[in-house]
Amino acid sequence: MVELVDGLLLNGFCHDSEMPGEKRVKYILVTGGVISGVGKGIISSSLGVLLKNNGYKVSAIKIDPYLNEDAGTFSPYEHGEVFVLDDGGEVDLDLGNYERFLDIRLTRDNNITTGKMFKHVMERERRGDYCGKTVQMIPHLTDAIVDWIERVARIPVDGTSEQPDVCIIELGGTIGDIEGMTYLSAFERFQRPTLKNDLMNVHVSLILHPNATGEPKTKPMQNSVRHLRAAGLVPDLLICRSTEKLDPHLREKIAGFGMMDLEQVVGVHDVSNIYKVPLLLQQQGVLEAITQRLRLSEISENIRKDLKFNMNHWTNLSELCDTFQQVVNIALVGKYVKIADAYASVNKALSHAAIHAKRKLKITYVDSELLENKPGMEEQSRAAWDSVKAADGVIVPGGFDKRGVEGMINAAEYCRKNDVPYLGVCLGMQVAAIEFARNVLSIDGANSTEFNSKLHENQQIVIDMPEHNVEEKGLGGTMRLGRRSTVFLTDECILHRLYGTHTVEERHRHRYEVNPHVVPQMARKGFLFVGMGVDEQNTDIWDVKKRTDSSAELMQMADQTEIDLLHKIDDLCQRGGDGVTRPAVRMEMFEMKDHPYFVGAQFHPEYLSHPLTPSPPFFGLLLAATRQLNSYFSGSRSPALQVVNEEEHLHHTKENDSEEKREDVVGAMLGKLKLEGNAVPGTQRLASFH
User: Fold this and answer.
1) Which residues form the Glutamine amidotransferase domain (predicted)?
2) If you average pLDDT over every residue of the chain, what do you get?
C-alpha cells in the first residue's frame, strides 16, 4: 500500500515524459527576508557557480510574483533594466546575472510571473482542460506552477543535450508578501517524505546595523525565518547579509533563535567585488551542505580534471578585479542614471572590458537632461559637462521617449569633434546619426519620428519599423527582440577586427531604426555603416531561423570583396523593403572614419558580455579610452587574455621597476584565465579573445 501511495505521489509530480529510473532534477529554492534587494540574485548565481565549477550541470529560474506578463513594459525605475534573452524574452535583470555567472543561455520560460501563470491557467480553463471543475488557486494554480518549473528545469542550457542536475529557483520579493504566498504553497509539497530530498531551501536575510544603537540587530531576520516556517518551509541554510563580517557570537545567537545548527548559518558580508561571494560560500562549506542535503551523486575525479573552468580559476578572477591601479573614467550619459540597476548589463559589460584592458573602472553617471543647457540650470549643466570632459570615454546607452535626448545629441557632438572615444548603444547610435545629419549633412530639423511624428520625409533620420504596429498590438512584446544576425560589409574596420568574425549574432530590443534612405549620404561624409542585417523569419523553434531572400542577398553582397564599401551601402539600401511585405535592410553597426573610436550598435552587445569574453564594442571603448587600441591591433601589447609574452617575461627576466613587476603579475593572472569556460563549442559568444 505504501509503495502504491509513493508511486502515486511521484507520478503526480513527474512530467509525463519522465520514465522510471530517469535522473530527477534537484531544486534549490532561494527566498529572501526583511527587505527586497537583499542580494538573492547574486547568492543564487553564486550557488550555481559552486555547483557548476565542481562538475554539476546547473539551470536557473526566477519567479517574479507581480501580475505583469513579463518585464517588457516596466520603467527602469521600477525593477532596473529589462534583460533580453536569445528568444526575445524580456525578463528580470537577475537572469542576466545567471547567464553571466554560469555561462548559460536561458529562455523566456525561465522567468515566471504571476501574470504569466494566470494566463496559462485561464487558457487551459478555456480549452476545457479542467473538465468542468472549479478552478482554484490550490490545487490548480499551484500544480501549474510546479509543472512549469519541472518542465523548464529539465531543459539543457549549457549548449549540451544533457539535463541539468540542479535548478536554482529564486523567489522574488520577501517572505510575508501576499503576492508570494501561492508559490510558497506550491513548494510545500516537497515536505512529503517521497520528495523531501528534492528541494533545499536557502533563505537570505539581512542583519541591520542601526547607527543609533551601534550594534547589529537580528530581530528582523528572526521574524523572516518565523514567517518562512509558518508558510510551511524550513530553511536548510540561512544566509546572513551584513556590512561587516559575521561575529562568531552573533552566528551562535542566530542559530539558537532560528533552531538551526551552527553550520547552517552562513555569513556573507560586503566584499570588494561580487566574484568573491562564491568563495565566501565555499569557505563555509556550502557546497558540501548542498550535496548532502540533496543527496547529489559525487562527481568523478576525471570529470573534475576535464573542467575548463573551476574554483581555482574563479579565485584568480576575483583577485584580478582588485589588482589594477590605473583608473579609466567612463562617462555614462543616460536618462535613468538615478538608479544604477537601470544600466546593470552596461555596467557589467564595462567592468568585464576593464578587466581585460587591465584598468580599474570608474563610471561617472551623467544625467543627459543636464547637457541640454536649459535656462535656470546653468550650475548643474556646468557640473555635468565637466564630468563629460573629464572622462576618458563616453557611452550613451539605450532608452525610450524624448526626455534627455537633446543632451545625448550634444554629448555625441562633443565626442565627435574632440576625438573622444564614444560608444552608442541602441538609442545611443540613433542620436549619433541625428547629430551627424544636423551638423555635417546640414539637414535642418533632423530627428527621429519617435520624438517628432510630424517630421518632413527628408528630416526622418530615425524611423519606426512598420511591422511593429503599436496602435494595433500595444507596447508589450512588439519590438524587434532577441538574437539576430549582423553581417560585416568590410573587413577594414575597427569593429570587425574586434569581433574577429564575418557574421555576429547579438540581442536586440528596439522599435525604431536608422532610415536606410539617408545612409548613403551619411556614408560619403564618413559615417560608415559597416554592419547590416535583415529580419529572418521565425520558425516554430525560436533558435532556428528561415533565411529570406533579402538575407541571402545581403550575405552574398557582403562576401563580394571586389565591390567597395560605399557601393555596397548604396545597393543594399536601395534593395531594402518596407519591413512588412519584404524584410528591410537594418543598419546594425557604424563607425566614424578618421576618428580614434566613434562607433555605435543598434543591438545591445552588453547582454552577451561575460567576465572571460568581454563584449567587443565595450572592449574597444576601454582600449581606446586607455590609448591601447592601436597597440592591441599591432600585437605589440596585449591587454586581453593573450598574455603569453608577459607571462614568459615574468619567469625569464628581472625587472627593477615595481610598476612593471606588478603588470607582469597581472599578466600571469590573466594567463591562468586563458580558457573558454565549460560550454561546448558552438555556444560560445563571438566576442572571444582566447
Assistant:
1) 339-526
2) 84
User: Which entry of 313, 468, 604, 610 is annotated as an active-site residue?
Assistant: 604
Cα–Cα distance, 473 to 7 (Å, whole number) = 47
DSSP three-state, residue 374 = coil
State how far the Cα of 216 lies from the Cα of 422, in Å rounded to an integer. 45
Residue pointed to by grid coordinates 553617471: 365
- Residues in CB range of 539: below 8 A, 6 or more apart: 545, 546
d(Cα 56, Cα 623) in Å, to the nearest integer? 36
Residue 648 is a catalytic residue: no
Among the listed residues 250, 287, 246, the one whose alpha carbon sits nearest the alpha carbon of residue 269: 246
426 is catalytic: yes
Residue 496 annotated in active site? no
Under 8 Å between Cβ of 392 and 675: no
Taking the C-alpha atoms of residue 620 and residue 577, their distance in angstroms, rounded to an integer, is: 33
pTM as predicted: 0.87
Q: Which set of grid coordinates corresponds to residue 74?
A: 516596466
Distance CA 98, CA 60 (A): 7
Q: What percentage of the chain carries pLDDT values higher than 70?
A: 82
CA distance 160 to 164: 10
Measured N-to-C along each axis, helices 311-321 and 344-356 cross at an angle, to the nearest 10 degrees, of 90
Over its C-alpha atoms, the chain yields an Rg (Å, rounded) of 26
In angstroms, the Cα distances linking 555 to 77, 224, 503, 549, 560 are: 40, 57, 9, 10, 9
pLDDT tens for residues 414-471?
999 999 999 999 999 999 999 999 999 999 999 999 999 889 999 999 998 766 655 5
**Catalytic pick among 99, 606, 646, 663:** 606
Give the active site residue among 167, 240, 321, 426: 426
DSSP single-letter state for residue 168 = E
How would you classify the pairing of strands 393-396 and 327-334? parallel
Q: What is the pLDDT of residues 565-583, one digit of tens each?
A: 888 888 888 776 655 455 5
- Spatial separation of the C-alpha atoms in residues 245 and 225, rounded to whole Å: 21
What residues form DSSP beta bridges with 327? 360
